[in-house]
Structures are given as structure tokens and as C-alpha cells.
């Protein structure tokens, strides 16, 4: 069997690095044909030298020039840049599977290009579905393309659905760690610093997603993602707080059975499953020892202290461009929080304010989502200047 | 779709009653064509009047006469008795699925007859596989018959395997409640009474299986059952203590993923799944609320205080007739304990002594298992008379 040819969009991010780790430990199974990276050029150079892709893309022309100088004439690699560069990596004719792991709404366009080119998608970029879920899934159906989730939660649901009948589903139960402030009262939440928020108890992730995990917006975005990925209405998707992050998510069926997928928190498991399912790859991970762990705990999410989850359900209910607006406003709010601009509890306040001001439009083309995204960013930045954050949440 | 035609062997036992409950609530899906019951004739009469089977069997000629008198000429039902009667119920030409729910080794012969007659088997009688697993599975393969487990643990494993590849299994993880004496020290175990042992914390079951649950022999028998049902060596089958009996069992895969099936402890779930899988039936059960439950706990079994589990692994290792001997010796030991003959801690002592005295033979025919069973019963009874139970376990 010849190795599966893969393009990794976002190779220098957390998911990208884990993906390359899986690929390297199964080099007989996978081959990297293209990759796009962020601004960490020394890591990207190392990756290019190790995996020898045919194409590599970076964000700007300047970075492309710098990467060219680093690599020199050592390797036969085409260095591209910008959205066109990423699209060229996503649609490379040899590529069979595109790992979409660019953080944020920037992942949407190259992912759509990959779908239109008929590539299988291993989807870590949740914004793709949050911003334009209906369009993405429609394009996937039209091009007979499979979308394999890389999020640990959605991979768990995929694994818990496999072999069972969709008609028998009662609910999807998405688990959430609850983040570092799960036990904080409203007063303590007001004083949360970026440093505190960046220290996630279970998962090592990028800064944006770590803050989203602390506000629970991450789980809200995952609810939206699940709604599209599994084609189920929002009232069949629930969130359960599970601080140990061992049960990655569950599916409840009409006979009362719940099927769950568990494991140590390591992104290589969902990445490998997305690349090789229904087959599983041996991974060099510590086994999950439930007896040593002793217990798994569960609690209901608190909508008062963590309003972002409710805002995501609200955006789903509003439909159309609302989820794109939720996502864009949240990106601005998180960036502002990280820069010390707004307090932690200001994040949901800003998102709610932008969502309330938005006139929901229909989503007929990716451009509709991108326009809503731009509008929301601009509205959020504007409101940041004269927004008076409520003292009480 | 015409209703699936079913024969229930052991209709008046705990599993039989639950099976008929599932059948009654899905009468469009299932029809009872034959049943065999125990000595509770008033319940059996009620069942016969309600489900109108074509054939019914009881254990003895005397009970058959009494049941005939009770029913009189009200119904057109053939009343049979003894092993032949049960076989006639198991092989009724119209029957598609036989629910094998007779307790003890007595279930083996009619179940084998059903397999040879090409019926699908919903197997609650674990002794069938414990006593003659290799022969039963060989007969099932030869007759192209599917065996669906009704034990909650094996049903959980079946549900956790469904859709996944057998080659990717690392281990089966059978959960055990640990029984009512999980936290008892060795001294307290010596003073355990039958009344204490009959009060199982999570499941309502018959007396024999409740005592087996307290000694953990039940889990040992389930390990043997799993070895045959899923065709995996014993070193790929582990037991985890899980006092809440919510996670009914799990499968660990080579990528570190564990798939688990959970639910409220109610036998109707595995019964319904055995009768209708891969489809699931709506069941009128309280939903599992993990948040209300709060936590699930796990611990390793203690081989010192509960040696029956180790004896079952030992019997598997010895192979051939050894599991039949383990099972028969245990039946005698449990009966003696319930009658006040031996102490609770005497159960594993007697089983071990009988197993040690046994000359393991090959299992080439069901008769080999039945002979070993008879030998073990007789050896156990003999040893009961002059067996000096060790003070320390």
C-alpha cells in the first residue's frame, strides 16, 4: 500500500506539530506533500527539511523570502505565500487528505478549496464549520468528500457513532473540562488575568483556544461544529462538565445506552483516527489507567458564570450569519483580553453586544460569512473603545 | 415487517421476566412462540395466558400435569417437560431467536440444540460458554448462527466493538461492581451471612448469581464467557472494579482509545439490544444523568480477598474440562453456603480444592463437559463432608 499523501495546513501550530509527529511515527503510512506554516520560521524550516514537501506556504511574501533564504538550494520545494499559497497547498494534485489546522476564520477559504478539489478533510479548524457550517457540509456532500473531525470531542462522538444507527441517537453529550476557573465564583472571575487563563489544567494548546476553553466559548464553538458535522439540531446536543478530560465525549441512544470514548488527553489519538479510521494506529502513549485515576466526575455547566456557552446556542438559534459574528467578535474580545484591554468577564459581554447589534443575514455563499466576520470584527473593535463593562456579570 | 418469532428458555427467571417485558412493550416487533419456565407455575400460567405461545415446557412431568390443569382447555398450547421439552421449545420450526436464560449448566443442552437448528441466540445463560465455550462457538460458526450476549457486560463490549476492527483491540475491560463486600476486610468476610450476600447493591438478580457477584466468581465466569464470545486470549481480558455499575464494560484499542457503554443498571437494555441490534429500541427507562450521579469510580480487584476471579483465570489457563469443573464446583459451594453448610470464604476454598484434584481432559463433545460437570459436583459434595476450611483465606 503506497503511503497516504497529506497536506498539513497550519503545520507549526499545536495540532500541526502533533500531526507531523503521528506522520513521522507511521512514515510507511503517510507522506507529507504540502504544508503551510505560521511565523515560526525556524520550526517550519526544520519541518520542511524533515518531511520534504513539494509545496510549502507562509502567510506573507516577506516570510516566503526569508524561508527561501533559510532553505537555499538544499531542497526542491516550491515556496508560496498568502491565501493563494495556502490554496495551492490544499489542492496539490497528489494530495489525498488535507489536515486543516489553521487557527481562526483564516482556515475557511483553503479548507473550502480542498473540499471543492475533492480532498478528504481532517478538520481541526473549528471556525470552518462555525462560520459556514451549512455551506461547508453542502460542498462536502456535493463533492462526495468525507470530513473527519480532529477535535478530541468530535472524534469521540465519531467513534461513539461508528457502527450505530443515526436514527437511534437521542443526544450528543459533549464533555468540557470546565477550564481553570470552573470553581471560581463571580467575584474571582472578574479578577482573572491572562496568565491565569493561559494555564489550562489538561490540554496543552495555543493561546486563543486556551482562553476559549476558560470562557467555555470553545465548547460553544464545538456545539456549533457538532450541529453541522453530525447534522443534528442544537436541542440534541448537550454539554457536560468533566474536569478530568478523560471521557472525550459521548452519544446517548434511544434505549438509554451511552457510548463514550475515553483516553489520556493527547491530540495524537484523534489526529491518527482522522487519518486512518476505521483502522487504528498504534500510538506511543501512556495507557489510560482508570484504577490509578480512581474517579471520573461530571457536573452541569453554569450558564451564569460562563455565559459564552449560552451565546453559542443563541447564535445557532439565530442561524445564518450569526455564528460567524459570534466567532469574530470572540476573536477580537479574546485578543483584547490578552492585551489587557478588557477583563475576562468582558469577553462574553462584548460578544453578546456585537451579536445583539447584528442584523442576521442568510448564508448563501462563503462571502456572506466572510462579510459578517469583517463586520463583527469592526463592530467589536468599535465597541471596545466605548463599551462600558458591567460590573456584575 | 412481520414480528420476530422468539423462544424464551427460562421465562420465569429474572432475565426471562425482563425479556417478556421488552417483548410486550414492542409487540409489533416480537412474538413469543415458545417458552420454558421454572417451578413458579402461577407466574408461568400468567405468561402463557398473556403471550399465547405454541409450546411451553417445564422441568418435570408432575409440573407439566399441574400446568395443564391450570390452563385447562382455555388455550391451544402444547405442554412439554424435561430436557426434551426444552429442546422442543428451543428448536420450534417457527422460532428465529432463542433467548437462553436458564440458570446454570442446565442451559447448555437446549442452547446447543437451538444452535444446531440454526436459531439466533440471545445468550443470558453464561454457563453455556463457561462449560463448553469452544464447542458452542464452533457449532455457531458451523451453523452460521449469531450469538448475541445478554449479560450487561458482554453486551457493553459488543456495543463497544461494533463498527471497530477486531485487530485493533488491545484489551477488553470487564467492569465489576465488586459486590456488597468490596470494602470488607478478611475478618469481616469470614462472618458474612447468606442474607448479607443476597443484598446486591445495584442489580436485582437471582440468588445464585447474586452470591457469585459477592464472591466475584460471577466476574470470573464472565471472563471465560468473554474469552469465547469475542475469541480473545485471557491475557487480553481484564477486570476493573466499578462500584456504581454505570459503565457496563469497555474495549481498549491500540491507539489508546477506550470505548465504553454506560447506562442505568437495567437488564432490558442488553436484552433489547440482543434482540434488535444493530437497531435500538426505545425503552421506558429513566435516563442516565451523569451530572446528578456526580462521579464514576474505579479500582483494581483484590485477588487476596476475592480469590474466585483468579480461579477462573486459572481454569481458562488449564483449558479443556477445567472451566466446567470450576463452574460445577462453584454451584455446589454456593448452594452449600446458602444452606449454611460452609462459610462465605469457604466457596473459593472448595472450588480451588476440586479444581486441584481434577485431571483436566480434552473437550471434544458436549458430553465431555457434562461428565466433568457431574464429576465436579460429586467431588465437591464429597469434599464438603470432610473439608476443613482454612481459618485464613
Total separate domains of chain A = 3
Distance between the termini of chain A: 57 Å
Q: Specify the biggest β-sheet of chain A.
A: 7 strands, parallel
Largest interface, C-beta within 8 A: A-B, 51 and 51 residues
Shape of chain A: globular
The number of E-state strands of chain A comes to 12
Major sheet strand order of chain A:
4-3-2-1-5-6-7
- Please identify the oligomeric state: homodimer
Pick out the low-confidence regions of chain A: none
Mean pLDDT metric of chain A = 94
Count of helix runs of chain A: 17
Strand content of chain A: 15-25%
Radius of gyration of chain A: 20 Å
What structural category arises from helix and sheet content of chain A? alpha/beta
* H-E string of chain A: EHEHEHEHEHEHEHEHHHHEEEHHEHHHH
Helix percentage of chain A: 40-55%
Summarize the structure.
The structure is a homodimer of 393-residue chains. Chain A is an alpha/beta fold.
Model description:
Two copies of one chain form a homodimer. Chain A is of the alpha/beta class and 393 residues long. Chain A has three domains: 4-150, 3-Layer(aba) Sandwich (Rossmann fold); 151-303, no CATH class; 319-393, RNA polymerase sigma factor, region 2, helix turn helix motif (Rna Polymerase Sigma Factor, Chain: A), CATH 1.10.1740. Chain A is 47% helix and 15% strand. The longest helix of chain A has 21 residues, at 366-386. The first copy, chain A, is globular, with a radius of gyration of 20 Å. The first copy, chain A, starts with a strand and ends in a 7-residue tail after the last helix. The model of chain A has no long low-confidence stretch (mean pLDDT 94).
Amino acid at each position: 500500500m503506497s503511503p497516504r499523501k497529506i497536506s498539513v495546513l497550519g503545520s507549526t501550530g499545536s495540532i500541526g506539530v502533533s500531526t507531523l509527529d503521528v506522520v513521522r511515527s507511521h512514515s510507511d503510512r503517510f507522506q507529507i506533500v504540502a504544508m503551510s506554516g505560521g511565523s515560526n520560521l525556524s520550526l517550519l524550516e526544520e519541518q520542511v527539511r524533515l518531511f520534504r514537501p513539494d509545496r510549502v506556504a507562509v502567510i506573507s511574501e516577506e516570510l516566503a523570502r526569508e524561508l527561501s533564504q533559510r532553505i537555499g538550494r538544499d531542497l526542491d520545494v516550491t515556496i508560496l505565500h498568502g491565501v493563494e499559497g495556502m490554496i495551492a497547498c490544499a489542492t496539490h494534485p497528489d494530495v489525498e487528505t488535507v489536515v486543516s489546522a489553521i487557527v481562526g476564520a483564516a482556515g475557511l477559504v483553503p479548507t473550502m478549496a480542498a473540499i471543492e478539489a475533492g480532498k478528504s478533510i481532517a478538520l481541526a479548524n473549528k471556525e470552518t464549520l462555525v462560520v459556514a457550517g451549512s455551506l461547508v457540509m453542502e460542498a462536502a456532500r456535493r463533492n462526495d468528500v468525507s470530513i473527519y473531525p480532529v477535535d478530541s470531542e468530535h472524534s469521540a462522538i465519531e467513534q461513539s457513532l461508528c457502527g450505530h444507527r443515526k436514527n437511534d441517537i437521542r443526544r450528543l453529550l459533549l464533555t468540557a473540562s470546565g477550564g481553570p476557573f470552573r470553581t471560581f465564583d463571580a467575584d474571582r472571575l472578574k479578577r482573572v488575568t491572562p496568565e491565569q487563563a493561559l494555564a489550562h489544567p489538561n490540554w496543552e494548546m495555543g493561546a486563543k483556544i486556551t482562553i476559549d476553553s476558560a470562557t467555555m466559548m470553545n465548547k460553544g464553538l464545538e456545539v456549533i461544529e457538532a450541529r453541522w458535522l453530525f447534522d443534528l439540531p442544537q436541542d440534541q446536543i448537550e454539554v457536560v462538565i468533566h474536569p478530568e478530560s478523560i471521557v472525550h465525549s459521548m452519544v446517548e441512544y434511544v434505549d438509554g445506552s451511552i457510548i463514550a470514548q475515553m483516553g489520556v488527553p493527547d491530540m495524537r489519538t484523534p489526529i491518527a483516527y482522522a487519518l486512518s479510521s476505521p483502522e487504528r494506529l498504534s500510538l506511543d502513549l501512556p495507557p489510560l489507567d482508570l484504577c490509578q485515576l480512581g474517579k471520573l466526575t461530571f457536573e452541569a455547566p453554569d450558564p451564569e458564570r460562563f455565559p459564552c456557552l449560552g451565546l453559542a446556542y443563541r447564535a445557532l438559534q439565530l442561524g445564518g450569519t450569526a455564528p460567524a459574528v459570534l466567532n469574530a467578535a470572540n476573536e477580537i474580545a479574546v485578543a483584547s483580553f490578552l492585551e489587557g484591554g478588557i477583563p475576562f468577564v468582558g469577553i462574553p459581554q462584548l460578544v453578546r453586544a456585537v451579536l445583539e447589534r447584528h442584523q442576521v443575514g442568510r448564508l448563501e455563499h462563503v462571502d456572506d460569512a466572510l462579510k459578517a466576520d469583517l463586520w463583527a470584527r469592526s463592530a467589536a473593535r468599535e465597541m471596545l473603545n466605548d463599551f462600558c463593562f458591567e460590573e456584575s456579570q
